[in-house]
Structure formats: structure tokens, C-alpha cells
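Input/output pair, single chain:
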Amino acid sequence: MGLLEDTPEFREDKRVRAEEAKFEELLRDDLRRVFCNVAGHRVLWHLFGICNLGDLSFDPDPRVTAFNEGARSVGVQLLALLETVDQDIYMKVLKEGRNIK
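Output:
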């Protein structure tokens, strides 16, 4: 073991990284359980609609554009998180979403 690895800061950093990795794996398991099924896809269809994920954010009123872009940003972040579990989830939700209405 090197000198750096003997420091309390190094051991603490290593412990924190291990905890974060464990949390991320638990989160991915939870996402699979909750959203990678037909019922979860219905919920995502609804959330993506609320987030205007498939729409343009632009409006002549810049305040409305900013609001729309904020909602869309949440949808994009949610989708990025879900794609760590299932790369094709957006296409699956779109395909199943056509049959929901």
C-alpha cells in the first residue's frame, strides 16, 4: 500500500464512493421494478406528457418558453436515468402509449 492509501482522507473517499455505487445499483434495481413493465410504462407515458418531452418548448412569451423548457428538462433527466436500466425504454413507452388513450 502506498503512502496516499494510508491517509484517513483516502479511506473516507473510498468508503463514500462504495456507498454511492451501492446506492446507484439499488436505484437501478428500483427503476427496473417500478418502470420496466406495462404499468410503469403507462405512468411514464403520463409523466413524459406532463414534461412535454416530445414537444418544442418555444412560445412567443419567453416566460412560457422558460417554464416549458424547465418541465422538458425534468423529462430529459428522468429519461437519462431510466436509460441506465433500459436503453430502449422511450421507444417502448411511445409504442405502448399509442394504445393507452
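The chain has a mean pLDDT of 91. Residues 4 and 10 are 7 Å apart (CA to CA).
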